[in-house]
Amino acid sequence: MTFSRDDSAGYLANHLARLFARELQARIKPLGLSIGTFPALLVLWEGDGLTQRELIAALDIEQPTMANTLARMERDGLIQRRRDPHDGRAQRIWLTETARALKEPATAAATAVNARALAGLSATERATFVALMRKVVTGLQPDDEVV
């Protein structure tokens, strides 16, 4: 069987992700945000005060990537790190007022990108597409069982 990128789910998903990222970056750059910090902000906007370990688990990324992202976010005035009052070894990540104020315009930008990308699909197709993506993501998650 010959490999065809036009029929490869992985290739198409990667291409789609790059297109989404490029469009979103163009829309959030004027807000002072980047594609690298946006996922962490999405999680923190749902509820801040998380530890780095909790953010890593929520975003399914590597520890060094998260450490670099948090360093940039702290430098850019988006987060503050504070010691956990119950565990002196842990730090909790808190949004600044600057980051809180960016929630509405940044999520509006993401909503606009999604709307543009899915405009050619019916409401049923959009729901099916998103449901299938969730299913594929779940299928690629590592098993929790140790073999």
Arrangement of strands in the largest sheet: 1-3-2
Q: How much helix is in the residues?
A: 55-70%
Q: Which CATH architecture would you pick?
A: Orthogonal Bundle
Number of domain units: 1
Number of helices: 6
Looking at CATH, the homologous superfamily is Winged helix-like DNA-binding domain superfamily/Winged helix DNA-binding domain
Number of strands: 3
Q: CATH class, anyone?
A: Mainly Alpha
Shape: globular
The CATH topology is given as Arc Repressor Mutant, subunit A
Q: Which stretches of 5+ consecutive residues score pLDDT under 50? A: none
Termini Cα gap: 31 Å
**Rg result:** 18 Å
Q: What can be said about the biggest beta sheet?
A: 3 strands, antiparallel
Structural class: mainly alpha
Protein name: MarR family transcriptional regulator
Domain HTH marR-type: 9-138
Keywords: DNA-binding, Transcription, Transcription regulation
GO molecular function: DNA binding; DNA-binding transcription factor activity
